[in-house]
Amino acid sequence: MPQIRVVSFDLWDTVFVDDSDEPKRLRQGLPPKPVERRELVHCFLSRHAPVDRALVDCAYDTTDSAFRHVWRHQRVTWPVEVRLRVLLAGLKRELPQDELKELVRLHEEMELRVRPDLVPGVAGAVETLRRRFTLAVVSDAIFTPGRALRALLAGYGIGDCFSAFAFSDEVGCSKPAPGMFRRAAELTGCRLEEIVHVGDREHNDIAGAKDAGCRAVLFTGVVDRDSANTRADAVCREFRQLPEIIETLAGGGEEVESRKAEVKS
């Protein structure tokens, strides 16, 4: 088998614990993120003309549903500005460009104000792996764009561990589209078969990576999404296992086959 040169990571529920910021927001007296987003839109629109909050909520819910449909079936994640423009068009309202820009920024930086937690052990695993492999990020951007995700990683002191970043808002497609993994290969100067991708979702991370020609490790340390039926080359249940799993996969050939059952157990 080809050598492994690059280890790429998903972010949500792989490096960051998704929605782990919500208990912190509660302690600070802040509403949940979905509520605050709707409050922001209502506030900005109300500066110019009255608007029923229930109507804003309905328009926001409809836009979210449209976003999810496009994400899942067209493999695209609309940037926040596109989402808000769709929402405003549905309400037949407009905002001055400077106000729209500020509304977008407040959406995009919400998780910089109150930050999600790192998955336990990920920093140590990343530091260990970077000594031998090039590390990359391959992640969809839902509300938090690539520039803010880079800031989150830097804020935890691990941003410099990664040499390349393939974010869906910057690439123009989202996992499981092969373009996401091709971008990681382009940025790191390797072939797709020289990448092993680590992520938590079978459809996006494992099937996406495997179909693109990469190898894949399913991470179940936050959420186990049916690891018994995975196509992954290995399953990692906590990050202290990951360096050894990657080394095993890097061994190639018969060694990988003989230990596949062990690393999946």
Radius of gyration: 20 Å
β-strand number = 6
Helical content band: 40-55%
Structural class based on helices, strands and sheet pairing = alpha/beta
Low-confidence segments, given as residue ranges, are 253-265
Strand residue percentage: 5-15%
Provide the CATH architecture of the largest domain.
3-Layer(aba) Sandwich
Q: What would you call the shape?
A: elongated
Mean pLDDT equals 94
| Continuous helix count | 13
Number of domains: 2
Q: What oligomeric state do these chains adopt?
A: single chain
**Spatial separation of the terminal alpha carbons:** 23 Å
Assigned CATH class of the largest domain: Alpha Beta
Provide the CATH topology of the largest domain: Rossmann fold
The CATH homologous superfamily of the largest domain corresponds to HAD superfamily/HAD-like
Reading the helices and strands in chain order gives EHHHHHHHEHEHHEHEEHH
What is the makeup of the main sheet? 6 strands, parallel
Which strand order does the major sheet show? 3-2-1-4-5-6
SSE blueprint:
Blueprint: E1 6-9, H1 22-27, H2 33-46, H3 53-74, H4 80-91, H5 97-108, H6 110-113, H7 122-129, E2 134-139, H8 146-155, E3 164-167, H9 168-171, H10 178-188, E4 195-199, H11 202-212, E5 215-219, E6 234-236, H12 242-251, H13 253-264
Parallel strand pairs: 1-2, 1-4, 2-3, 4-5, 5-6
Helix pairs in contact: 2-3, 2-5, 3-4, 10-11, 12-13
